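Quick review question:
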């Protein structure tokens, strides 16, 4: 198996370059001065092209072909067999993409991120529009590398959710949408939940320190990570031993930083949990973004918005903010953080309305890719769909079409995975609660070790060894299924709203 050793050596080099590209991106979103965008775009383009050239080198193709007979004799689930399978899939996709496109995309998205930040701060979509027009054109060109396809959106979706087709996502969303809409309507007819206490003045340091305490108890390893501030929270890993997160603090909204930190910590715990035998290979990554989002949404919502969690943490939060929360009992607080109320901002949406943000975004992305929606018309159509889906219209583009960073990074195809991640999180949660029958009692004591250990064993350690649907099937007995999530929502909100 000398050729396998050689392949792994080449993969190690490729993954090291990818880590360097990631470091440039992390720095841009945290500490890079705004004037550095042009120089950073050149450096990102050069490194991205180097990554692509090495990943598509004929030597990689020859090694994969030479190893084909050897793979036939391996256990199909062993690390080596799965590594070769994943590497072959990546190689066959990457060789279809030109180096010119890779460099243009890297340069364009780097410049677009800085433009997006400026546009968001000033609520001026026009500053971002030409950059997004370039990115949409590049993503159409990317899709055309993979003709024939069933739908032009398929190649984009496949980058984030291997094997998933646009039609399959639309079918799942068609099942979820009417149930969530009915739930929203039912709760709207009930006495509304008071959330005014969440929008008082909350000291930034107090919020930060409390969030740090929470994610430390979750198991976030500060020896292998750090938390910084950014305009839009994100997680960036440079290897199993260095996984960093960011959050955003709003002194007028307690929930923003707290649930942002929980969400990103969920991503980071996943990446910190890959088996070290997978280090510096393509298997040291998430099975897909839906699986990744299942981890972040689980810690943010199924844990972080649960009553058992707050039985332990709420007295600590009251102690940190006695003036704001001293007169608010646990029941009122719990109902407040779970209030169903249509909002402008996706990342601050409640669990019942969150998926509607994603469904609306999917429609916009498909229209952009099909060419039936022009970028210049996005703000107007965005607001129309917000009115249609959620009954609210953003007062400005910063709270509307400019709210998320993802399009500036060229990540059209990503957003459906948030909703899919919600579904997977609930599927996993049903199995977890069967395997850990005392989980609620553990959370009431602020103990999360058994939960993290379960996730490490069943989800995290395998990294990208298994494709997402296969992984979900292995753990839950079925492919991605919306029913556990719908059961979870209905049970939770029936209790909160006394439906």
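Suggested answer, residue by residue:
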């Amino acid at each position: 198996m000398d050729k396998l050793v050689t392949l792994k050596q080449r993969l190690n080099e490729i993954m090291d370059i990818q880590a360097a590209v990631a470091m440039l991106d992390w720095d841009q979103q945290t500490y890079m001065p705004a004037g550095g965008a042009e120089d950073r775009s050149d450096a990102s383009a050069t490194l991205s092209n180097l990554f692509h050239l090495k990943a598509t080198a004929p030597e990689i193709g020859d090694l994969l072909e030479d190893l084909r007979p050897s793979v036939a004799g391996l256990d199909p689930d062993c690390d080596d067999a799965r590594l070769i399978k994943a590497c072959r899939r990546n190689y066959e996709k990457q060789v279809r993409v030109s180096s010119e496109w890779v460099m243009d995309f890297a340069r364009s998205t780097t410049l677009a991120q800085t433009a997006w930040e400026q546009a968001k701060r000033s609520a001026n979509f026009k500053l971002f529009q030409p950059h997004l027009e370039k990115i949409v054109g590049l993503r159409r060109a990317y899709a055309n590398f993979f003709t024939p396809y069933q739908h032009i959106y398929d190649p984009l979706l496949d980058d984030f959710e291997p094997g998933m087709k646009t039609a399959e996502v639309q079918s799942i969303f068609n099942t979820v949408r009417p149930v969530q809409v009915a739930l929203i309507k039912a709760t709207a007819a009930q006495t509304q939940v008071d959330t005014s206490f969440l929008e008082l003045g909350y000291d930034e340091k107090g919020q930060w320190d409390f969030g740090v305490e929470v994610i430390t108890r979750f198991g976030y390893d500060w020896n292998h990570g750090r938390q910084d501030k950014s305009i839009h929270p994100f997680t960036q890993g440079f290897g199993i031993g260095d996984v960093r997160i960011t959050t955003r603090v709003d002194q007028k909204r307690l929930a923003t930083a707290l649930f942002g930190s929980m969400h990103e910590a969920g991503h980071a715990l996943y990446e910190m949990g890959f088996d070290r035998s997978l280090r510096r290979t393509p298997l040291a990554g998430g099975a897909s973004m839906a699986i990744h989002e299942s981890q972040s949404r689980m810690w943010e919502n199924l844990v972080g918005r649960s009553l058992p969690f707050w039985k332990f943490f709420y007295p600590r939060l009251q102690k940190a903010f006695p003036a704001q929360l001293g007169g608010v009992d646990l029941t009122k607080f719990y109902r407040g953080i779970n209030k169903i109320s249509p909002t402008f901002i996706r990342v601050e949406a409640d669990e019942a309305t969150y998926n509607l943000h994603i469904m609306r975004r999917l429609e916009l992305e498909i229209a952009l890719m099909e060419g039936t929606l022009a970028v210049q018309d996005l703000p107007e159509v965005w607001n129309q769909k917000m009115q249609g889906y959620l009954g609210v219209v953003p007062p400005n583009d910063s709270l509307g079409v400019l709210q998320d960073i993802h399009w500036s990074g060229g990540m059209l195809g990503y957003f459906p995975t948030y909703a899919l991640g919600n579904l997977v999180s609930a599927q996993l949660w049903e199995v977890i609660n069967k395997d850990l029958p005392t989980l609620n009692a553990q959370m009431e004591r602020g103990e999360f070790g058994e939960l993290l250990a379960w996730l490490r064993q069943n989800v995290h350690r395998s990294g990208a060894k298994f494709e997402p649907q296969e992984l979900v099937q292995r753990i839950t007995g079925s492919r991605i299924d919306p029913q556990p999530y719908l059961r979870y929502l209905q049970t939770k909100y029936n209790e909160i709203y006394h439906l």
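Why it works: The first strand starts at residue 227 and ends at 229. The chain has a mean pLDDT of 95.
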